[in-house]
Amino acid sequence: MDILTHTVTGLTIGSIVVNLLPSHQPVKKNLSVLLFGMLGGAFPDIDAVSLWSGFDAHFGKWFAHSGKEIYSGQWWYSHHGFFHSVVAAALAGFLSGWLIYAVRRLFRREKTFYNFWKTYHCPVFYTFVLAAFAHLVCDCVTPASTWGGVRMWAPLPVYIGGWGNVWWWNNYDIFLIVTGCFLLNLIWMGACALSKRHTATLPLIFAFTAFVFISVQVHNRQIDYAYEGAATNYQQMEKSSKKEQERILGKTIYRCMEKFDRRLPFYF
Ligand SMILES: [Zn+2]
């Protein structure tokens, strides 16, 4: 799935976590949860750096293969490899926590790592890992391509997913559901702050409803996007995916989304 949908999914998970935390949390902490939700949602695609046009010129000397070969290969650092795993997300979440602690300690704002973790970083860490896990699950329903899924449980050499329920991008319907869930949580956050009351029930209902809607959309696609190896009819599949979006969303919403898509400098 595209990077914007992954990032917004992470942000939405962050907003749910903020609404589930006990009330009167410092604003800084809530903002950190939201930020790390976004970062966790985008994190696994860090391995797509091998597709960057300047990769060979800058990092080529350290690898025996070109960036393109690395991207579509099955080495641990290839796309959908180790970085698309729960272990990598947990490590990144822990290390970023350690880095923040080290900086805060430098300015004498923290005494022990345990205290920092307990009072500040714990929900941030869980949000990061949860957002990255959501990314992995979303990638499972994209085509197998040259990887055969994602290496979710690395270091185990098993690739999961590659089911091809959805196309790589143009999943406007899923993006809209996730954005809707985020906005509802944001409104709820504001309502709780104003009324000084707090309940976790509604945010959980928002999350569950969004999950059901997304599952229905994923399983109700009328085109089979599954393929293995390098795609031969790539452009045709992309065209079909857009036509399907038009059928799902209706002409007006589809046109708005396509317009938005054209303005973005990356695949959406
Ligand atoms: Zn990914």
What is the structure about, briefly put?
α1 (3-20) packs antiparallel against α2 (27-42) and α1 packs parallel to α7.
Give an overview of the whole structure:
The protein is an all-alpha fold and 268 residues long. It has one domain (3-52, 65-263). The protein is built from ten helices and no strands. The protein is globular, with a radius of gyration of 20 Å. The structure holds zinc ion. Zinc ion binds at residues 44-45, 84, 135, 139. Zinc ion binds next to helix 6.
Cα-atom radius of gyration:
20 Å
End-to-end Cα distance, whole Å, is 8 Å
Structural class, by secondary structure, is mainly alpha
Helices and strands, in order, run as HHHHHHHHHH
Q: Strand content of the residues, in percent? A: under 5%
Largest sheet: none
Q: Low-confidence stretches at least 5 residues in length (pLDDT < 50)?
A: none
**Domain unit count:** 1
Mean pLDDT rating: 94
Number of separate strands: 0
Tell me the number of helical segments per DSSP (H or I, 4 or more residues long).
Answer: 10
Bound molecules: zinc ion
- Helix share, percent: 55-70%
What shape does the CA trace take?
A: globular
